[in-house]
Structure formats: C-alpha cells, structure tokens
Amino acid sequence: PTGTGKSLSIICGALTWLARHRARAPAELSDDDATRPEWVRAYERKQRQLQADPAAEARARYERWESRVRRRELGEARARRQAGRQMGRVTTAAGRKRQADKADGASDDEHMVVAEYDSGGEQAPYAESVRRLLAARDRGRIAYDSDDSDCGDSEESGEPEEPSLPKVFYASRTHSQLQQFVGEIKRTAFAHTMRCVTLGSRVQLCTNDQVRGSARASAQQLTERCLELQQGKQRCAQLPARRTPMLDFRDALRVADIEDLAGAGRTRGVCAYYGARAAVASAHVVALPYNMLLSQSARAAMGISLRGSVVVVDEAHNLVDTILGVHSAVLDARTVDVLLDLVQRYFSRYWQRMRGSNVVYVRMTLALLRALRKYMQAAAAGTRVKRVGEFLQDARADHINVFKVDRYLRESRIGRKLNMFAERAGNAAKRTDHAAKRTDHAAKRTDHATEPAAYAAEPAVAPATAVAALEAFIECVGRPDRTGARIVERQGTHGTELAYVLLDASDAFGVLRLEARAVVLAGGTMAPTADVVAQLLPRPRSALCAAAERDDARLDPARVRVFAWGHVIHASHMRAL
Question: N or C: which end of the chain has fewer CB within 10 A?
C-alpha cells in the first residue's frame, strides 16, 4: 500500500550495491618476479587499474581538461577587468547600435540556413580536410543542447567527453513522486556520500523570467524561444559563454529535486535545465519521469547512457500502457497542410544557400508531405487499420526511405530552423499589418472583420506544434522492425487523421533492457506478474532480439526474478466494515 516504504527499501538496496561496487578492489597480481623489467610491471599495474575502473583514464583526462579551462577562464576574466579599468567605457550606446545594425542582414539569414548534413558518405564528395574546415566555420559558440553537433564540445576543440559513472536511474510517473523519492534519500546516510540529480523539462527548470513570460506558459514555445536564443545574437543571460559557472553549479549539487535545482540556478545565475543535464554524468542517482527514460531519442538528447547502470521503475503496474503511449503519434490533414506550406516557403528562399545533401533530403521531405496530403484528401470515411509497409505503399511513398528522413530531421535539426523562419515570417506580417493600419485612417473606424484576411487570420496550427507532430510521426513510421505497429486511419475534427499505434511493448522495452545492467519493476499492484512479463519479455522473435544469442539470453523470461510480499498489516488487525 501507499506509504509503507517500498521505494525507500528498493533505493536503499540499490545504493548499497552501488556503494559496494564503487569500493570493490581489483584483483591484485603478484609482482614478486623481479626479473621482469620495470616497464612491464608498470604496464601490468595500469592494466589492473583499467580492469577495475575502465573509465579511470578518461576521467583523468577530463579532469585535466576541466582544470585547464578553469585556469584559462580565470585569467581571461582578470585580463578583461584590468583592460576595462585602463580603457574605460569608450563604446557608447549609439556605437553599439551601429555595430549591431552593421552585423544585420546576411548574418540574420545565415543562422536560418541548416548546416551541412553528412548522410553517411552517400552524398558527401568533400575531402576530410574540407569537412573539418566547414565544421570549424559552422562552429563559433557554445551550444548547451547535447544533440547539437555545432557546439564547442567537439573533438577538435580539445574537450573530452565526461565519462559516466555507474548509477541508479529512478523513474516514476509524476514530479511530485520524484520529489518524494529525493526527500527519502535525504533522510538516509547515502545523502552524505551520493550525488542525486532530478531531470525535468524547461517548464520546471527555466530560470529566465523574460523567456518564461514570452512563452505564455506553453512548453513548446518555451523550448523554441530557448533554442532561438542559443542560435541568435542575443544570448540568454542564464547561459554564460564561460564554462566555469556551469561547472561550479554541477559541483555544488548533492541531493537535489526540481525545486532545489531551480533555486540553485537562480542563486548562481545559470540555467538549471542545462545545469541538471551537465550533472548527469557525475551523479550516482538520477531521478527522471517515465517519458525521458522510455524514449530512446529523449535519452540521446539528454545525454543519458544506461550502460552498466541499474534502472528502477516505480509504479510499474502501468508501464506497458506508458510505453505504448510514448511510442505512438498522430498526424492530421490540417497539420500536413501547414507543414507543406512552411517547408515549401523555407526551401524556395534558402535552397540556393544549402550545402551538401540538405537539398536532397528537404526535397525528400516535401515529397513525403505531398504523398501524405494526397492520401488524406482521397481517404474515404470510416476507420481502417493497416501495417506500416502497407500504408506507405497505398500512399505512394514506399519509394521514400522514411528511416533516412527521420534521421535527417533529428540530426540536421531543421525543425528549429523552420520554427525560427515561421516566427520571423509571422512578425513581418504583423509589422506590415500595423503599417497598413497607421496609413489607412479610415480602416480604424471600421469593424475588425473588414481587415484583410491575410493578416487578421491566425494560423490553423502553430508551426512549432506542427513540426513536433511531424518529427514524432516520422520517428515512429521510420521504425518498421517493431512488432505490432499499425497505422489507424480515421476521420477526425480537422480531416483525416493518421495514428501510429504500437501494440507490442516488448521491442521498446527490450532496447532499454539490453543496455542496462538490470531493471527493477516495482509497484504495489503488480499482480498478476506473469501478465507483465509476457507483455514486456515475450520469447525473442523480432530482429532486435534475434541479433545474437547473448541478447536472446538476456531477454529470456526465465531470467526474471519475482519478489512478492504480503500486506504489512497482520490479518488479525483488519476488519471489514
């Protein structure tokens, strides 16, 4: 029952294992043979250290890099303060405005064009040295989004990837349950030896009040505004150009829930959202909601690796339904119309400035959208259920490699460019509308219904919402190896709707199980457990499970261990009323 200490019992056991795993000493080899050279014995000692901790060398390299960055930024800050005292403030506000106006024009459109996309060597005729030069030109700022390849976190910039410690991932349904879980950790002795971080969305962790106000409580608009500030000239005040504030924020965290992270971010003047993401690698416990854990693309975007870690899923009685919901998507005819118009206008303006294979893949995306719109327009009334391959064939889109389109949308991040382009076009239309109103005094006395429809009408679907719906739908359709996936065609409020429905959760859960060291499913109403095991771990039959015999063994239901305890209250103390 609720409140009897299930989560506390599980996390104490998991953290006890983690503490013993960290303290486990490597098996010592004898060094008694003095006849061997010293360099041979030194090599053996190094090999023993690597066996005990494979990430020790990578961790030492990262710590050396971090120390160099801190010293360099400290020296640069001192030099700037000294130069400011000597020269004074010679740049006036008017001078700064002239410089900003001079930088406008081509630079405004430059960050609107999608960067060169490498499709795996198919359409990339450039030499490796030329690619490095193009990548160096595209870089130029620190990007805090982990799935942004144009950031300073590249190999050429000299920053190594921070190695991830073995950890415990705790997932639950709501943020209130995660907050309660973190509070239970604070009551234990592990609070003094473990570091715990809670992951959330920008809605919970954004510390820029101006951005939050402009988003008008919309999660999608808040995300787009945040990403726009990273691409534009006006940088978010909570994302410092220096790395030291983020490193200090990460090091100061011990056991923090959502409120603790947001408060620490406001105190230190840094973004708590990206600060929490930066603290994942060095944390021992990571608390996160279901959707971040169960979605492979969300884990990749957040920089989460489950390798060698233990995953604890609390309230797991509804895990199957959650997996099916996370891996489902809906796309309607009105959204397709908005997307087709948006992509066509974007492509017609910037296609001559696109490089590499971007032109090919944008045209492929347009062809897919046209096929979807034509199929929806010809759809008859009623509800039909089709396999993914059958649907693509009926839509005359079977010649389009949907998997490559999905990868292009994710890796090129063209969705952000489309959102910025749509917002700029909308602002230009509003300015034109206001100018027309100022010049036409007679129109001010008339009713608003007499205004031109081109400016008075609101878009049917927000561009950011349409782009997100397309990315979710293409990501689902681009996975034809999933078992039990169907396309449901039906008539909705805004025309024909295409719903991707996943009926078998075993493949999606199998990816998580193969990556993690162990998965613990806990809940007060898990019975009948045989039904849960049958839905999550059926006998391997898909391409994923048949990849190797080792994977077959790890997904074998016979390896599941079930623990069940009765009610904590004795039967003699209960009475039915």
Answer: C
